[in-house]
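Sanity check

After download, print the first record. It should look like this:
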Amino acid sequence: MDAKTIEKICGQIYRRFPEVTGSKPKVQTQATDREAPNYLLIFKGSGTTADGKRIDRTVRVVTSETGKIVKVTTSR
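Expected C-alpha coordinates:
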Protein backbone atom coordinates (compact mmCIF):
# COMPACT_ATOMS: atom_id res chain seq x y z
CA MET A 1 0.00 0.00 0.00
CA ASP A 2 1.44 3.35 -0.98
CA ALA A 3 1.96 6.34 1.33
CA LYS A 4 -0.67 8.49 -0.41
CA THR A 5 -3.39 5.90 0.22
CA ILE A 6 -2.36 5.54 3.87
CA GLU A 7 -2.52 9.34 4.33
CA LYS A 8 -6.02 9.41 2.83
CA ILE A 9 -7.20 6.70 5.24
CA CYS A 10 -5.50 8.45 8.17
CA GLY A 11 -7.39 11.66 7.41
CA GLN A 12 -10.72 9.84 7.51
CA ILE A 13 -9.87 8.08 10.78
CA TYR A 14 -8.52 11.27 12.42
CA ARG A 15 -11.79 13.07 11.67
CA ARG A 16 -13.87 10.24 13.11
CA PHE A 17 -11.63 9.50 16.12
CA PRO A 18 -9.80 12.71 17.11
CA GLU A 19 -8.08 11.07 20.09
CA VAL A 20 -5.80 9.10 17.71
CA THR A 21 -4.90 12.16 15.62
CA GLY A 22 -1.21 12.27 14.84
CA SER A 23 -0.50 8.62 15.58
CA LYS A 24 1.13 6.68 12.77
CA PRO A 25 -0.69 3.42 12.03
CA LYS A 26 0.92 0.02 12.20
CA VAL A 27 0.22 -1.62 8.82
CA GLN A 28 -0.19 -5.39 8.37
CA THR A 29 -1.17 -7.43 5.32
CA GLN A 30 -4.10 -9.84 5.60
CA ALA A 31 -4.60 -12.80 3.29
CA THR A 32 -7.95 -13.02 1.47
CA ASP A 33 -9.65 -15.40 -0.95
CA ARG A 34 -9.22 -12.79 -3.66
CA GLU A 35 -5.97 -12.01 -5.45
CA ALA A 36 -5.58 -8.59 -3.84
CA PRO A 37 -4.82 -8.58 -0.09
CA ASN A 38 -6.54 -6.51 2.56
CA TYR A 39 -4.57 -4.34 4.96
CA LEU A 40 -5.02 -3.86 8.70
CA LEU A 41 -4.08 -0.45 10.08
CA ILE A 42 -3.88 -0.12 13.86
CA PHE A 43 -4.02 3.35 15.43
CA LYS A 44 -3.35 3.95 19.13
CA GLY A 45 -4.10 7.08 21.13
CA SER A 46 -5.64 8.35 24.31
CA GLY A 47 -8.23 10.85 25.41
CA THR A 48 -9.72 12.12 28.63
CA THR A 49 -13.10 11.41 30.16
CA ALA A 50 -15.47 14.07 31.49
CA ASP A 51 -14.01 13.69 34.98
CA GLY A 52 -10.42 14.07 33.72
CA LYS A 53 -9.30 10.44 33.69
CA ARG A 54 -7.17 9.16 30.85
CA ILE A 55 -8.65 6.53 28.53
CA ASP A 56 -6.68 4.60 25.90
CA ARG A 57 -8.20 4.08 22.46
CA THR A 58 -7.22 1.54 19.80
CA VAL A 59 -8.77 1.79 16.35
CA ARG A 60 -8.41 -1.11 13.89
CA VAL A 61 -9.18 -0.43 10.23
CA VAL A 62 -9.41 -3.08 7.50
CA THR A 63 -8.97 -1.63 4.01
CA SER A 64 -8.75 -2.90 0.46
CA GLU A 65 -5.62 -2.40 -1.60
CA THR A 66 -7.21 0.66 -3.23
CA GLY A 67 -7.85 2.32 0.15
CA LYS A 68 -11.55 1.57 0.54
CA ILE A 69 -12.39 1.11 4.22
CA VAL A 70 -14.03 -2.29 4.71
CA LYS A 71 -14.36 -2.39 8.51
CA VAL A 72 -13.58 -0.19 11.52
CA THR A 73 -13.50 -1.45 15.10
CA THR A 74 -12.49 0.37 18.25
CA SER A 75 -11.81 -0.42 21.87
CA ARG A 76 -11.52 1.74 24.95
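If your output differs, re-run the checksum step. Summary of this record's structure: Residues 3-75 form one domain.
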